[in-house]
Amino acid sequence: MIFVDKDTRVIVQGITGRQGRFHTKLMLEYGTEIVAGVTPGKKGEVVHGVKVFNTVEEALEEEDAEASIIFVPAPFAKDAAFEAIEHLDLVVIITEHIPVHDSMEIKEYARKHGTRVIGPNTPGIIAPEITKIGIMPEKVFKKGFVGVTSRSGTLSYEIASALSKENLGQSTLVGIGGDAVVGTSFREVLEAFEKDDETEAVVLIGEIGGNEEEVASEFIKKMKKPVVAYIAGLNAPKEKRMGHAGAIIYGKSGTAESKIEALKNAGAHIAKLPQDVPKLLKEII
Amino acid sequence: MRLFEYEAKKIFSEYGIKVPKSVVVSNIEDLKKVDFYPVALKAQVLHGSRGKAGLIKFANSYEEAVEKVKELKKFCEKILAEEKIDIDKELYLSVVVDRTVGKPLIIASSEGGVDIEDVEKEKIIKKHVDVFTGLNPYEAREIARKICEDNEIFKKVSDVIYKLYRLFREKDCYLAEINPLAISGSDAIALDAKIIVDEDAYYRQGFEKKGELAYVELSGNVGCIVNGAGLAMATLDTLKHFDLEPANFLDIGGGASEEVMKKALKLVLSNERVRLIFINILGGITRCDEVARGIVGALKELKTEKPVIVRLVGTNEDEGRRILEDAGIYVFSDMIEAVKKAKEVVK
Predict the structure, then answer these.
(1) What CATH number does the domain located at A9-118 have?
(2) Residues A169-189, buried b or exposed e (16+ Cβ, 10 A)?
(3) Contacts of A237 in chain B (CB under 8 A)
(4) Is B336 within 8 Å of A240 when comparing Cβ atoms?
(5) Would the CB atoms of B174 and A180 count as touching at under 8 Å?
(6) Which domains does chain B have, with CATH numbers?
(7) For each successive 10 residues of chain A (285 residues), what is the average pLDDT?
(8) Which fold has domain A136-284?
(9) Inter-chain CB pairs, A–B, below 8 Å
(10) Does A210 sit within 8 Å of B100, measured CB to CB?
């Protein structure tokens, strides 16, 4: 598995909000080591047995932690992310609709502190049957040897579910997020999967907009492990934001065709439909 | 969200970037305010290459302008009437969010007035900016000296670059572009202006927030309602794969409450071409029985005769299926089977 393990200790920022509360419960039930929560002004409260602190620094005076998951609303998310980046090694930002200029600052801040940021606008990360720092429905996942990475939430559940049904369990699923600027790129996730002993093959679920997939293709050329890719948005019109802030084609850049071409040239196997992913994977391993 | 040229130029002016003297013409009356001839009449539409499309016209007199405005009014609400500028040279300048590295990127070229994608690589200057330190004036000068020579013009262009970057940051832009930046005598004037503002920054930029549903109309007849952007795109691609034509893209987000479903159905049914509604819900944490009740409730209220096909999977799936079947709605757990049924119904 990559980026997390069964001992990864997690702080939930925004734990007293509706979403934070709800997913804290689900993560605890899944077995995630949640050691503290943070909501400024709510010190002393307890959420599903988890103690709440005013700041991350204060939480760390009582509990050790490596990671944070952020449920803070968009206008305050940058500040919460900076706080986590300064004190921790891994920061998962679930929040949607963070302005892109804030995301550029978050990415720069993380670069300067050497912290890994996943997201924003991500379902998070899950190592099936071990831990999850995220909001994904655990039922569709199964432990195994396929590394999965995606820009989209429900589409990754769709494909994970199809894989699980065919007994193709997953080592880790990393949602990199649907925004234009995200903390961790496809390429970085692939690099980690290539080094990971428990991962034998990789599924990449991309979509229109930007050039994440093209950049990842440069690395796929050098990979020993096989890669199956599916790209959504072949029929998306230009200059229209397709749900995700990052899913938009400008001019000749960001089309599904360009991504499929780059991935094919790099030796990845292309699934025409999401349902074809397990079949393709079985053929090559 | 892309701004109209006249809106973008207003922002340029606020930042001290020189633009031609102009009047925004909404009706013929407004033309009386124009006291500069010859005048350029530019249709305010949001797509590029207006020149080629005949959406920029010139007039030498009031009478001529009236005629031309009448023609242009067929294509747009507003026309920008602008003083005609004598151009010595055209440059290109823009600041954009470079998604790959997550930094602002300044792009400049001595070859303006054409699509930057068509300019030779050697003639394009690119420079990333650190979001925290921002653009220093000397960095603007380092870019400017590579695209112009004359001392006076060099100073003006440096200043425009510096101001364009400030505007890009302060106005939450994805893109702020001047193409062309006209050199006219010793002046640098923004002849065109393209600004794309980040919709997610609505709360601090004072523009109205759009609805929570991400909807894009397409040309087909299968109305689509899907939860999640990636899955929604994949649904369109799957329909197309089976020779069906989607009427729209619609992402209703993670949950699928009755309230949201009602809004979604209303939106999809507002398109008269829609002959069939295809709903694809992957209920992760949301329960399928709640989704099913939402669909049935919304359909009952909207009283549509159009066939509905639902693909539904997730928690409490059996209960969800039963509710939909009882209401006479086709329901499947396999996406491909649902699409095949849609094909049968549309034929």
Answers:
(1) 3.40.50.720
(2) bbbbbbbbbbbbbbbbbbbbb
(3) 216, 218
(4) no
(5) yes
(6) 21-83 (3.30.1490.20), 89-205 (3.30.470.20), 214-346 (3.40.50.261)
(7) 97 96 96 98 98 98 98 97 98 96 98 98 97 94 98 95 96 97 98 98 97 96 98 93 90 90 97 96 93
(8) Rossmann fold (3.40.50)
(9) 170
(10) yes
